[in-house]
Amino acid sequence: MPPSVREDLLVEYRFLIVEDSLLVAMDIEDAIHRSGHDVVGIAPDMTVALNYTRDTDIAFVDVRLADGETGPEIAKALAEYGIVVIMITGNPGLVAAGVSGVLGVMAKPLTDQASMDLIQFAVDRKNGRPGVPPARLRLFH
Fold first, then answer.
1. SS in 3 state form for 86-102?
2. Contact at 8 Å (CB) between 78 and 109?
3. Using CA atoms, how far apart are residues 39 and 53, in angstroms rounded to an integer?
4. pLDDT tens, 16-42?
5. CA distances from 141 to 30, 34, 62, 120 (A)
């Protein structure tokens, strides 16, 4: 096994899920746990999401949340803390122009394989590697 793969197996990243649909969030949370990582929280809105900035390595952020279309603003704020951020939304057109500091956007719903691929891509990026973006992920830069 190459050293970089062994390193990934030893590092547990902390994910934040910014999503107001509990069922969607729980599906993503399950995939993160099966990937060997931890979920620091599920945030339904901006106030809760920003409380996790010091504890988060990677965040998946929806556009429309309990407090409105605040996802892009949350995503930008999280990225400013050095968090790897990917938008996951049923409305990818709402962020078609991109969001500063955010890697890209992926349309919901996610299959289990798409979730696993997205998690691996985010981990690769956190490790400074380009990674292989999932087929449905639209990169912003």
1. EEEECCHHHHCCCCCCC
2. no
3. 13
4. 999 999 999 999 999 999 999 999 999
5. 28, 29, 19, 18
What tokens does 58 get?
Answer: 């990677």
* Spatial contact of 54 and 64, defined as CB atoms under 8 Å apart: no
Residue with tokens 């279309």: 69
**Encoded tokens for 28:** 């993503």
Phi, psi of 34 (to 5 degrees): -65, -20
Say if residue 44 is preceded by a cis peptide, omega within 30 of 0: no
Global pTM reads 0.92
Residue 82: partners with Cβ closer than 8 Å, 6 or more residues away: none
